[in-house]
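From the thread on structure requests for the teaching lab: each student submitted one protein with a one-line request. Submission from student K.M.:

"Model Diaminopimelate decarboxylase from Novosphingobium lindaniclasticum LE124, C-alpha cells only."
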Amino acid sequence: MDHFALNDGELFAENVPLAAIAREVGTPVYVYSRATLSRHARVFREALAGLPSVHIAFAVKSNPNLAVLRLLASEGYGADVVSEGEMNRALAAGIPAADIVFSGVGKTRRELTAAVKAGIGQFNLESEEEGMELAEIAASLGQRAPCALRVNPDVDARTHAKISTGKADNKFGVAYDRAAAIYARLSALPGLDMKGLAVHIGSQISDLEPSRLAFLKMGELMEAIRSEGHSVTHMDLGGGLGVPYKASDSLPTPQDYGAMVASVAKDWGVTLMFEPGRVITGNSGVLVTEVVRVKEGVVNPFVVVDAAMNDLARPAMYDAWHDFAAVKPNGRTMTANIVGPICESSDTFAMGREIDEVAAGDLAIFRTAGAYGATMANTYNSRALVPEVMVDGSKWAVVAARIEPATILAAEAVPEWLA
Ligand code: LLP
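Reply posted by the TA:
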C-alpha cells in the first residue's frame, strides 16, 4: 500500500499534486511519501512483534537520504551500513552508534578504524582476514569490537543473479563448513567480542523457502558453536524481502516473513537482527518524469522521457520492471517503448508495454522507485544528479537538491601542462 493515488483525475503524493512539485523543482525528480515510509516501518516491526528480542537496522544502501534516515530513526530503526559514508549519514541522522551494524565485504582499514572510534554496535565480519585486522585495530585503540560472523549458507535465493548473495560462489561471508572453526579462532582474539552470526542470501526475495532453509542451517551452526563452549547472543538474519513491482506480483507479506522467522528462530535465545531495505522504501517513492517527445518507431512508438538510466538504473542493470503511469491520464492507452535520452540502448525502461497514453510535455511516474533509485543515480552523459522531495500530508520539501552539471564541472581541472 502506498500514498500515490489519483485524486480528481490527477496523481497526488499524499495531499500534494505531483504536477505542483514538478513545476517548482523540475523533472526528473524523486518523490517520497512520509506516510508510506512510516507505515512500512511499522508494518515490518509489528510483523516481528511475536519474537522475544528484535533489533531492526534499516539497510541504508536502499535509500540513504538524510530525511529518510531521520524518519526511520524516529521510528526506532537502527542502520545497516556498508561504508564510512553511510555510517556518517546514519550518525548525522541521529541514529545512535550502538544501533548501527557495519556490513560489507571490503571494509578498509580506514573504515574499520573510524567505525571502532565511533563505537559502532556490530561489525558483520565477512572473512577471518577481516576479523584479524579489526582485532588488531580495536586492540591498538584499547577496545573490543563487537562482531558477528557472516556466513554463506550456500542457498539459492531464487532471485536475479546480480542480487543473489548466499551461494557458495558469491563473494559474501565465510564458507558454511568453515564457519565454526573461524568463529572459535576469532573468539580467542582479545580485540574482538564475538556476539553471533549473520546471514543475507539476496534481495527482492519472492519465495520464503530459501530463507527458511538458510535460517535452519544458521540455527544448526549456532548450536554447534555453542556446544564448543562459545557464546552466541545475536543472530542477524539480513534483509531481502521483496516488494510488488507489478499489480500482478504476489509476494510474501511482512506477516508471512515474521511467521516464518518465528517458526524457525523464536526459541534460539538470541537477539534477532534484521536489515530490511527495499520492503521499507521501495513503494514509498516514485520518479516523476516529463515526456520529451513521442517518436515514431518501426514496431511501436518510442516515448522518450527526461529520466534516464543514470537516474533510475534498475531497468538497465537488472531488466527490472517499474510501472509507468501518466500524472493526468486521459483514459486511453497506447503500446510503446519507454526510453531515456542517454546514448546507449540499455537506456530503456520498457519495450512494447501497454501504458497510459502520453504526449510531449506530459508528466508521468515510474512507481516503486524509492529503493535503489536515487542512491544509484550518477551523472552519465553530463546529466544533473537527480533531486529528491519528501511529502508529508499537504507539506513537501526538497530533501536533496539537484546537483547541476556545472557544479561537477567546477570540480574538474585542466593541468597547467595541458594548457
Ligand atoms: N543486508 C545486506 C547485507 C545486503 O547486502 C542488503 C542488500 C540488504 C541487507 C538489504 O536488502 P533488501 O532488504 O533491500 O533487499 N541494487 C539492487 C539491490 C542490491 C541489494 C544489495 N544488498 C536492486 O536495485 O535491486
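TA comment: The radius of gyration is 23 Å. The domain at 4-32+282-410 is CATH 2.40.37.10 (Lyase, Ornithine Decarboxylase; Chain A, domain 1).
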